[in-house]
Design brief:
By secondary structure, the protein is of the alpha/beta class. Helix content is 40%, strand content 16%. It contains four helices and five strands, in the order ααβββαβαβ. Strands 3-2-1-4-5 form a five-stranded mixed beta sheet, with helices on one face. α3 packs across α4. The longest helix is centred in the first third of the chain and has 17 residues. It is elongated, with a radius of gyration of 38 Å. The protein starts with a helix and ends in a 7-residue tail after the last strand. The model has no long low-confidence stretch (mean pLDDT 81).
């Protein structure tokens, strides 16, 4: 019986096929591919070109023009009523030629959209580049 037990133990120690995959070559190949990817990707610069005023700049602040639109569609230029659209266009052309001015458009909450959009269109066609809609917090 002792010989039978010995024979069983020797047959059990025979070389068996390896079931799991050898991961070392796979990991090596993946590391090489990652390194190649990192090297070949071009570096992207996240920079924005800006021209900032110098410290010695004595530029005067821009002239602020306030255009208000009332609830009934009336247009006010710095508090003074504008007669018609042609008059508004002439005034905006003067502002565009001056260059150093800002136009602040202040529509009332109940102002007609058609009037506000018309002012923006006239300002763009006149060549006004510094225009902003002010007072949006009332619209939210």
């Amino acid at each position: 019986m002792g010989s039978k037990a010995a024979s069983l133990s020797t047959s059990h120690n025979l070389a068996e096929p390896m079931i799991e995959m050898n991961m070392t070559p796979l990991i090596d190949v993946m590391l090489v591919l990652i390194i190649m990817l990192i090297i070949t990707i071009p570096r992207q610069n996240q920079s924005v070109d800006m021209s900032l005023p110098g410290k010695g700049s004595n530029d005067a602040p821009p002239l602020v023009i306030d255009i208000s639109v009332t609830h009934d569609g009336s247009i006010l230029w710095n508090g003074t009523a504008v007669a018609d659209r042609a008059n508004l266009t002439r005034q905006l052309l003067v502002v565009a030629k001056a260059g150093k001015s800002e136009v602040h458009l202040r529509p009332d909450r109940a102002a007609p959209y058609k009037v506000v959009a018309g002012i923006l269109t006239v300002a763009k066609r006149s060549g006004v580049v510094n225009i902003g809609v002010v007072g949006n917090e009332q619209l939210m």
